[in-house]
Amino acid sequence: MLQGKSALVTGSTSGIGLAIARALAAQGANITINGFGDKDAIEKERAAIEKEFKVRAIYSPADMSKAPEITEMVRTSDQTFGSLDILVNNAGIQFVSPIEEFPVEKWDQIIAINLSSAFHAVRAAVPGMKSRKWGRIINTASAHSLVASPFKVAYVSAKHGLAGLTKTVALELATFGVTCNCISPGYVWTPLVEKQIPDTAKARGMTEEQVKRDVLLAAQPTKEFVTVEEVADLAVYLCSDAAKSITGANLSIDGGWTAE
Description:
8 helices, seven-stranded parallel sheet
């Protein structure tokens, strides 16, 4: 479906981002992966994408808190593959704390990585997409782009902002064959979610098992974590011709969380 296309997925060395990168590669897209982690592990994932899906895959170590590095990553992806057709803004971090104790530097970091990085990447990618009259921009938001939870002031603010960014970009690009949508998962079992459980337990005075049962999955009527594969499959659909009229949408995949 995506032969001849190329995709850049930020925050894709693990979790949701890696699943999306692999799903797009399975459809024939060349891939740029990005993120932090063990160098050998990242190279293993990059090489596996090439071997399994018979596409080209490169890795960018760009820091998503630094605009010049984001712009250079987009340029490199475009030059390497001859175009950048699909941009998935997936990079994200989390920090949990009561607002009066929330470190200012953590606020700045989360807004930079979870929101501003998407702006910088879209800004750099749009001219090429407009010139080719085709493009797909997907922002990984969250159920927290629609509702809030306590102790996550920066994350919730960034994800609400990402939903607004998505709508604005969609309107600006509506006549250029470029769509922009955001996917808003509920709790997906990823390293990011696993890492925040101890902090949430401490903030709420609960055990980690209580956090899983009474905080995380309590929000999802299905009582199940969303899988990374489910999110990736939705991203692939949004890149298809069948989804060309879907733009500016905030698509929930949250086990019914935001239906309540």
